[in-house]
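Hi there,

I know you've been waiting on this one. I reran it after we fixed the sequence typo, so this is the corrected version. Both the input and the resulting structure follow.
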Amino acid sequence: MSRTTLVIVAALILLLAFFTTRPDRSLTTDTRVQVAQLLEQQERELKSKRPGSDQGAKLKQTLAAADSIRLPFDQGDPRQVIIKMREAARQDGKFVLINFGADWCADCRVLEKLLQTPSVRSFVDSNFHVVTIDVGFYLERDKTKNTDLASTYGLDLMVSGIPAIVVVDAANTAIASTADGEWRSAKRFTVDDLLASLRRWAPKKS
């Protein structure tokens, strides 16, 4: 509930109490409790949005924990690596998960740390062949890497941001993509958030 909504509800309760309570128009105990509870809820919401809140502290901890993470970029021509992984997918029925990112990107490091979580790693290993591709500093034209490859999969990194994910099958048909930028704030993901997406994208097993 927004702050504005809370204020409106509290005002309505007060008006209702004014017209329906005892002749002396004083507030009943129940009404006072309701108003107090609403005001306490409003204060809690405001505190949660202030700098230094629990949510902000948790985010800082997440970023600090991933600070030393480096992405496992595949060596050699990423196009050839994708072809190799697609061939493996043809043999075992898995999909290929292509992760476009960069070491300077905090969200990319957090995602990589989440991918290393045992429950996530187990699910990924069972369903995907992963290719991790360095896009460099894609915000400056002369410092980019592999952005042309990203574009072949329908990714405009200026829109999607990074990390950007594409999932393809053995025939190179796109199964899923984060072209809309939904993963550019991966630092806010939980293990459950990540697993929920991966389960949607995984091969359907009979």
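Quick highlight: Residues 3-54 form one domain.

Best,
R. S.
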